[in-house]
Design brief:
Order of helices and strands: EEEEEHEHH
Distance between the termini: 52 Å
Radius of gyration: 17 Å
Strand order of the largest sheet: 5-4-3-6
Helix content: 40-55%
Number of strands: 6
Shape: elongated
Oligomer: single chain
Strand content: 25-35%
Largest sheet: 4 strands, mixed
Mean pLDDT: 89
Length: about 120
């Protein structure tokens, strides 16, 4: 699969997937999810479209998923792709939001402390 990125085109070999993760971001009250795929050469791409996710699902179904040497797929990514339990994605989203809120609160506290408030 070849995708266009800010640094140019990147190609990831879906027959040689090493790991798959789910990246969740928040903007204006909604969550955006990106499936991050890394192949054995270390090339990483983020997949956001339904078409690219379908291609990834087909590749994972053809791979030796649970056996030794197969790709590692996080529970949240597995749930997002339709292979796992839905609550894994819910827990992942809640933890991502909690980390965002905590880090933002700590940042504001440090800035106020340095400003002398």
């Amino acid at each position: 699969m070849t995708v266009r990125t800010l640094t140019g085109q990147r190609s990831v070999d879906l027959t040689r997937i090493k790991d798959v993760r789910l990246l969740t971001g928040f903007s204006y009250g909604s969550a955006s999810r990106t499936v991050v795929v890394r192949d054995r050469d270390g090339v990483r791409v983020g997949l956001t479209s339904a078409r690219s996710r379908r291609a990834l699902v087909r590749a994972l179904e053809g791979a030796r998923g649970g056996l030794e040497g197969g790709p590692r797929v996080s529970p949240a990514a597995r749930a997002h792709l339709g292979f796992g339990v839905a609550w894994h994605r819910t827990v992942h989203t809640a933890l991502s939001f909690l980390v965002l809120v905590t880090s933002l609160s700590l940042y504001i506290a440090v800035v106020l402390k340095l400003a002398g408030f």
